[in-house]
Amino acid sequence: MDIYTIIFLALAVFIFLRLRNVLGQRTGSERPPFDRAARDFPKGPAKGPANSAAGNSTGNNVVPLPGTVIDHAPAPAEAAPTLDRWKGIAQPGTALARGLDDIASADSSFDAARFLTGARSAYEMIVLAFAGGDRRALKDLLSREVFDGFDGAIREREQREQKVETRFVGIDKAEIVGAELRDRTAHVTIRFVSQMVTVTRDKSGSVIDGSPDKVADVTDIWTFARDTSSRDPNWKLVGTESGH
Question: What is the number of domains present in the chain?
Answer without folding.
Answer: 2
